[in-house]
Amino acid sequence: MTLNVYPTVSGYVWTPTIAPVWNSQVQKTVTGRTVAATYQQYPLYKFGVKYATLSQSLFETLVAFFNQQQGNVVPFYFDAGPGNDSVSAQAIGTGDGSTTTFQLLRSYGGFTEPVAASFGTRTAYVAGSSASATFESPSPGYVTFASAPASGAAITWTGNYYFQCRFSKGTTDFEQFLYQLYKTKSVSLETYW
Question: Which DSSP state fits 169?
Fold first, then answer.
């Protein structure tokens, strides 16, 4: 299934907020000790996108997109913007001489997690040299090499990635503050796997 991409509104102020979310539980035992567990391997993320000014046409674009996604029913891709949408020479594995498909990854500091989808100009490298590869095969978060990388060869990629999101709620609010001008305090999005 091909997902839509959240529309960008270049030239207008928007400031995304980003919050990693873990599904975890912390309990105290009868002896007073604390026991903690997480129910997921990677965090989910919540985004809040604020628009200070939207023209009538951009307002209509965002409302139409929200309606096309049926509120929070249909997933889509979201570009979290500069600093949160690209990697350079990101390690994704080591060749074994037979595997041709690798999950794309990204690292925040020392924490590495999978990428839902990549876009734009992307390059895959084997042992530091660009290699013939197809992105989005078998799915948008993978890269498939034309031939299996040699055993022990470091595999990296450079490019941009999307988060796979849904709207957090089945409703969103826009405020018309002047004729054909709108703003919103926050459009809430959340990732999922």
Answer: S
Q: Which residue has the tokens 């350079």?
A: 88
117 CB burial (10 A radius; 0-12, 13-18, 19+): buried
Tell me which residue has tokens 């450079």: 158
Rounded to an integer, what distance in angstroms lies between the CA atom of residue 83 and that of residue 104? 17
Mean per-residue pLDDT for 25-31?
Answer: 92
What Cα–Cα distance (Å) separates residue 124 from each residue in 23, 51, 136? Answer: 33, 36, 12
State yes or no: pLDDT of 83 exceeds 90: no
CA 175 – CA 157 distance, rounded (Å)? 42
DSSP per residue over 119-168, as a string? EEEEEEEETTEE--EEETSSSTTEEEESSPPPTT-EEEEEEEEEEEEEES
Q: Two tokens at 152?
A: 């022990």
pLDDT in tens, 139-188: 899 999 999 999 999 999 999 999 999 999 988 888 778 888 878 777 88
pLDDT above 70 (res 13)? no
Give me 141's structure tokens: 């978060």
Tokens standing for residue 27 = 């309990």
**Cα-only R_g, the chain:** 20
